[in-house]
Amino acid sequence: MTRARVNDRVGFEDNQGGAIVGPHSNMPDTDLDGLDDAEEAQLGTDPEKPDSDTDGLSDGEEVNRHGTNPLLSDTDDDTFADGVELVSGADPGDLNSVPSLILYGASHRGSNSLSTFYAIDPTTGRAIRIGRFGFQSVSGMDTDVDGILYATGVQPDTRTSMLFTVDPTSGVGTAVGPTGLADLGMRAITDISFRPADNALYAYFGPGDTAGTLDVMTGRATAIGSSGVSCCGNGLAFDSDATLFHANDNALNVLDQSNGAATRTALLNFPSPAVYNPRINAMDFHPETGTLFTSLNDGNTRFPKNYLATLDINTGRVTLVGRTVDGLDALVWFPVQLAP
Fold first, then answer.
1. Where is the composition biased (Acidic residues) (predicted)?
2. 209, 229 contact by CB (below 8 A)
């Protein structure tokens, strides 16, 4: 079933009650969303808010390009916001078209700001904002075999490193428990990944470049051992064969899951324009194609640029998909669990 869509452009009577103004009038567009203020008055959208229904798509984009309803965040009422469907390859106007996989990301700008949850287009890097986690410095996300989404970050009031679960419809996090990183002499978790064979949650700790695990019942961290490599980024991901990959600013490694030791498999080849101190700070394998998707941080300024990229595990070649939200520090492919 397909829900009714909004017309591409609406006409409206002028203030004299007669002429119908066309789609390219010279009337003001206060919020710069692609609809002039009079059109917004006709539609009932907010002329001072580019995205009236907060679905990640501007009002003008909804009306002019997609035919979705700018007053409904979920035009086809299938529980997925229009923006999330669009970047995930589904039709936001068709109830029977829903995503099967969604690429989620977490972004933070500065250690004291709350991190934001996004859905990301794997073909362009476009990020659609979903909501706030309620945690800071979110730098690792992964889903377990039951489809529960976990993340690591910092509790704002106590500045405590935490493991928490995430509601993928809102981004809101629910604490599992403190990781106890300070007891290990560590300050941060750079990435996490579930081992497919037994659902063990692995993590990478810094400083100290140490591999470890997290208890999903308590959040508690346990160190396994030093990787023997150093510096920046430190993305982590299991492939479908339960090989644990690690990437930083210069190499792709395989980590020994018993002692954390790294074996280099390839030097990373970063493309232009990401050439000033680039590093891989998050990654996850596509569960169907096996392609390794990464967040590439190019740290050439105080506020570095981020790119969505893929990484060839055989050659180390990094291929840019496109610019994405800055501060992207966690990535996860999420398999949508559909009710029967």
1. 30-40
2. yes
Burial class (CB within 10 angstroms; exposed 0-12, middle 13-18, buried 19+) of 77: exposed
Condensed to tens digits (0 to 9), the pLDDT of residues 132-144 reads 999 999 999 999 9
Q: Residue 302 contacts by C-beta under 8 Å, 6 or more apart in sequence?
A: none
What would the pLDDT profile of 57-109 be if each residue is shown by its tens digit? 888 888 988 889 888 888 888 888 888 888 888 888 899 888 899 999 999 87
CA atoms 122, 128, 131, 135: torsion sign: positive
pLDDT per position as a tens digit, 215-255? 999 999 999 999 999 888 899 999 999 999 999 999 999 99
* Encoded tokens for 236: 């982590």
More confident residue, 299 or 124: 124
- Mean pLDDT of the region 114-135: 96
Nearest to 203 by CA among 195, 212, 194: 212
Q: What are the Cα distances from residue 271, in Å, to 268, 274, 291, 298, 324?
A: 10, 6, 18, 11, 16
Biggest alpha carbon–alpha carbon distance for the chain: 78
**What is the strand order of the sheet 305-311 is part of?**
278-285, 292-298, 305-311, 318-323
With helix as H, strand as E and coil as C, how does 40-108 read? Answer: HHHHCCCCCCCCCCCCCCCHHHHHHHHCCCCCCCCCCCCCCCHHHHHHCCCCCCECCCCCCEEEEEEEC
Q: How many CB atoms lie within 10 A of CB 112?
A: 11
Token representation of residue 241: 């064969």
Q: Is 0.90 surpassed by the pTM of this model? A: no
Delimiting residues of CATH 2.120.10.30 domain(s) in the chain: 101-335
